[in-house]
Amino acid sequence: MKHRSLVLFFVLMDWIFATICWFLFYYFRKVAVEKVEFNINESFYAGVIIVPLLWILLYFFQGTYHDVKRLYRIKVFNLTFLASLIGSLIIFFTLLLDDEINGYQQYYQSFILLFVTYFTIIFIPRLILVSIIVARIHSGKYAFPTLLIGGSDKAVEIFNEIISLPRGINRFIGFVNINGVDRQLEEKLNYLGHVSDLDTILKEKNVEEVIIALESTEHAKLKSILTRIEGSNIRVKIIPDMYDILSGIVKMNNIFGALLIEVNSDGMPIWQQAIKRFMDVILSVLAFIILLPLYAALAIGVKVSSPGPIFFLQDRIGINGRIFRIIKFRTMYVDAEKNGPQLSSANDPRITRIGRFMRKLRLDEFPQFINVILGDMSLVGPRPERQFYIDQIASIEPQFLHLTKVRPGITSWGQVKYGYAENVDQMLQRMKFDLLYLKNRTLSLDFKIMLYTIIIVLKAKGK
C-alpha cells in the first residue's frame, strides 16, 4: 500500500472510531452518569459531525499522520494517550462545563468516562493497524528502499550487520561508491554508480533511506553528501564514532537496530510545524485585511513616485527548489536590472524616494502575506533568493542549499541581523544565522524573530 493510501486509511479509521466514541460517551453519560433517559437530540447530531473532525485536526497537529509507516507501538500509545488527554480537556471545557449537573462529582465522572472511552476505542484499532504495518516492514513487504553510500570495508561491515538483524526494516537496492569499490560488497549489492550521480540515482530508485558508510569524522566528504540529500523526505543515517556515542548524539528507539546516527535537518517537531503553518495562514489573512488601507496608500505612493507597475514580481526559489513569484511593492525605477541581476546598496540610485522610505520600514515586504497564504512562503524562514545568486553562494558554501529545503519567510534571523544583503559576502554572513535558525527552529524562536522584526519596523532601522 502506498504511503498516501495508508494515511487516508488511517484518517478514515480514526474518524469512524471517533464517531463511535462520541455515540458511546453520549449514551453512557446520560444513562450511567446523569441517570436520565437517552434521547437523540440536536446536540448529539452536532457532536457526531463536529467532534470527530476536531479529533482528526488534533491528530494532524500532533503529527500522527506525518509518516504512518514509521509508527511503532510505544509511539502510538504515547501519541494516543496525549491526544486523548488534550482532546478530552478541550471537549470538557467547551461542551460539558456549562451542563446542568446534580453535583461536581458528575463533572469528574464525565471527564474520566470521556478520556477512557476515547483512549481505549481509538488506541486498540491503531495498535492493530500499526502492528500489521510493523510486521509487514519486518517481513520485507513494506521495508524501506535503502541506498548504501561507500565501497570500503566499513560499508561491507555495516551492510552485514543490518542484514543480520532479526527485525530489519531496510531493503537494500544497491550502493554507490565514493572512492574505490570493495569487491566483497559488489558481490552482495548492485553497484549503481559513483556518488557524483547521487541526485539521479535517488530520483530513479525512489530511495527512502540512505546509509552513509563513512566515519563521522570525515567531515568534508560527509558535508558534501549531506548537502545533496538533506531536506528531502529521505532519512539519512551515518556511522557514529566513540565521541558521538559518549556525547549522547546517538539516539536509540529500536533495541534491534544498528548503531547509526539519524541525521535530522529540521529541529522543529512535526506538531510545531503544523501549528506554524496554521498560524502563518491565520495571521497573514488578518494582516492582509487590517492593512488594506495602508496597501491603498502605498500603492498610490508607488504609482505617483515613478512610472511603472505598483507591484514588483520576481522568480525566487522556494521550498525544495520550487520556483514561485514573490510579490513586493516596487521600490526601484523600471528596468533597474536591464544589465542583469544586481543587489541593491545603501545609496543605490535605482531606488525611488518612496522606495527608500518603504525599505526603511520594510513596507515593501507587506504584499508577501499573499505569498504566505498561497503556501509559497512562511512568516519566518530563510529569505528566498534568485537562482543566479544561489549558484554563486553554493559554489562557495554548499551548505546554503539547506536553506532551500524549508519554506522561505518574510523575515528571518539573518534578515533581522543584516537586512538587505548588498553583496555575496553579506549573503554568506546572513546564511550563518539562517542555518543556525534552521537547526534550532521552534515556535518560540519564531515569535522572538517576529517581535524583533516589529521593533525594526517601528524604529525604521531596516536597511
What is the approximate shape?
A: flat
Q: Determine the N-to-C terminus distance.
A: 52 Å
| Strand/helix succession | HHHHEHEHEHEHEHEHHEEHHEHEHHH
Number of helices: 17
The largest pleated sheet is described as: 6 strands, mixed
* Number of E-type strands: 10
Proportion in helices:
40-55%
Uncertain regions: pLDDT < 50 for 5+ in a row?
Answer: none
Physical arrangement of strands within the biggest beta sheet = 3-2-1-4-5-6
Assembly of the depicted chains: single chain
Number of discrete domains = 3
Approximately what portion of the residues adopt beta-strand conformation? 5-15%
Please describe the topology of this protein:
Blueprint: H1 3-33, H2 42-62, H3 73-96, H4 104-139, E1 144-149, H5 153-163, E2 170-177, H6 183-188, E3 191-194, H7 198-204, E4 209-215, H8 219-229, E5 235-239, H9 242-246, E6 261-263, H10 270-290, H11 292-305, E7 311-317, E8 323-329, H12 353-361, H13 368-374, E9 378-380, H14 387-396, E10 409-411, H15 413-418, H16 424-440, H17 443-459
Parallel strand pairs: 1-2, 1-4, 2-3, 4-5, 9-10
Antiparallel strand pairs: 5-6, 7-8
Helix pairs in contact: 1-2, 1-4, 2-3, 3-4, 10-13
How would you characterize this protein structure?
The structure is a single chain. 55% of the residues lie in helices and 11% in strands. By secondary structure, the chain is α/β, with parallel strands linked by helices. It folds into three domains: 3-139, no CATH class; 144-263, Rossmann fold (3-Layer(aba) Sandwich), CATH 3.40.50; 270-459, no CATH class. The chain has a six-stranded mixed sheet, sandwiched between helices. Strands 7-8 form a two-stranded antiparallel ribbon. Strands 9-10 form a two-stranded parallel sheet. Strand 2, helix 6 and strand 3 (191-194) form a beta-alpha-beta unit. The longest helix has 36 residues, at 104-139. The relative contact order is 0.07.
